[in-house]
């Protein structure tokens, strides 16, 4: 495993739309390991592949809830949302800015895991925010695009 360098705004890489993963090979598994290590080393709750310069639909999330643990999402899709919440967000690619973003209160996500099995996850609260924030990265969207108020 190795730490990867986190790309920061205004790097163009963060604005690209990521391609799906069509084959989970050793490179993808190494990337998943590196992304988790990089997220933990930077005290993040999530990291998307474009943040380490890889334009593939891959996300890791760990909101610090032991019941949930580390989530590794390959080709994640939000299949349903419910309700609304507003909470403060930040991003490892955006230094020194935090701000309120409106998100669904509850999100259901389908994604492949590292074994190629299609999984379904339901997130509420912070986990719902993390799903939305990280999947936005795969579409070139940064939380500041949706921010209602700059709390920095
Ligand atoms: Ni982010």
Number of DSSP strands?
Answer: 8
Strand line-up across the major sheet: 1-2-3-6-7
* Bound ligands, named by name, code or SMILES: nickel (II) ion
Strand content: 35-45%
Mass-distribution shape: globular
Cα distance, first to last residue?
A: 34 Å
So how many helices?
2
Low-confidence stretches: none
Order of helices and strands: HEEEEEEEHE
Helix proportion of residues, in percent? 10-25%
Which radius of gyration do the C-alpha atoms yield?
14 Å
SS-based class: alpha+beta
Major sheet details: 5 strands, antiparallel
Q: Mean of the pLDDT scores?
A: 96
Please describe the structure with a list of short key phrases separated by commas or semicolons.
binds nickel (II) ion; 3-stranded antiparallel β-sheet; single chain; 152 residues; globular; 5-stranded antiparallel β-sheet; alpha+beta
